[in-house]
């Protein structure tokens, strides 16, 4: 095996989109503990696995699916509006818990991707100040759809700059911890740029 993905110097989220319970169990047996899914409906078919898996929601989240995600997931990577953040806070209050979230930032400004603009990040954090059932743990960034390494690196470098700026904000429900950045095709670039959490699916399931 060329690279042991389990020993990457970052937190690895195994993306289980379109994977079976047996596929997930195989990776769990190899030592992976955090699994993320893109779609709520698919997530709900897997959460009954008799394993102490940590589930993350990494895909676009609609307000009407928030209840299930708050119930089963420990971290939501893909918060892309203040309205969604309010809905998560409301549901977390009903469940008497604090929901950990990341704000998705569309640095590449690609119309095919969700996420707020980088200029909106301090605004949404300020708006969230009064929400007492969420904790903003950092940001999530998706690399641009290109093979140009320099373009990818530029986006990830900007992501690291944005993440580091969070440390300067004093806010009770803001605890900068995770810079979720990098997938199967660009995770090495992301790590070099300062990512401490990567979301790997195809490469991971094809390797183990």
Helix content: 25-40%
Estimated structural class: alpha/beta
CATH class group:
Alpha Beta
Tertiary shape: globular
Mean pLDDT: 95
Strand content: 15-25%
Walk across the major sheet and give the strand order: 7-6-5-4-3-2-1-8
User: What is the annotated CATH architecture?
Assistant: Alpha-Beta Barrel
Give me the CATH superfamily: Alanine racemase
Low-confidence stretches: none
Topology (SSEs and partners):
Blueprint lengths: L10 E5 L5 H9 L4 E4 L2 H5 L9 E4 L8 H7 L2 E5 L2 H13 L4 E7 L15 H7 L6 E8 L7 H17 L8 E8 L5 H6 L4 E4 L1 H6 L1
Parallel strand pairs: 1-2, 1-8, 2-3, 3-4, 4-5, 5-6, 6-7
Helix pairs in contact: 3-4
Q: Overview of this structure, please?
A:
By secondary structure, this protein is α/β, with parallel strands linked by helices. The chain has a single domain, classed as Alanine racemase (TIM Barrel), CATH 3.20.20.10. The chain contains 8 helices and 8 strands; from the N terminus they run βαβαβαβαβαβαβαβα. An 8-stranded parallel beta sheet has the order 7-6-5-4-3-2-1-8. It is globular and about 45 Å long.
List keywords for this structure.
208 residues; alpha/beta; TIM Barrel; 22% strand
Give me a quick take on this structure.
Helices cover 34% and strands 22% of the residues.
């Amino acid at each position: 095996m060329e690279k042991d993905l389990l020993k990457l110097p970052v937190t690895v989220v195994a993306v289980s989109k379109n994977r079976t319970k047996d596929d997930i169990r195989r990776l769990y047996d190899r030592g992976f503990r955090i699994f993320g899914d893109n779609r709520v409906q698919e997530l709900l078919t897997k959460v009954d696995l008799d394993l102490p898996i940590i589930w993350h929601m990494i895909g676009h989240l609609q307000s009407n699916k928030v209840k299930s995600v708050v119930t089963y997931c420990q971290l939501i990577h893909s918060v892309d509006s203040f309205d969604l953040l309010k809905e998560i806070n409301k549901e977390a209050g009903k469940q008497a818990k604090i929901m950990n979230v990341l704000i998705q930032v569309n640095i590449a400004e690609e119309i095919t991707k969700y996420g707020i603009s980088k200029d909106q990040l301090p605004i949404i954090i300020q708006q969230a100040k009064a929400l007492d059932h969420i904790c903003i743990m950092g940001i999530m960034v998706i690399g641009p759809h290109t093979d140009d390494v320099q373009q990818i690196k530029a986006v990830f470098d900007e992501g690291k700059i944005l993440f580091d700026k969070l440390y300067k904000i004093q806010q009770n429900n803001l605890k900068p911890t995770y810079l979720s950045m990098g997938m199967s095709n660009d995770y090495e670039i992301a790590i070099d740029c300062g990512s401490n959490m990567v979301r790997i699916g195809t490469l991971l399931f094809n390797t183990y």
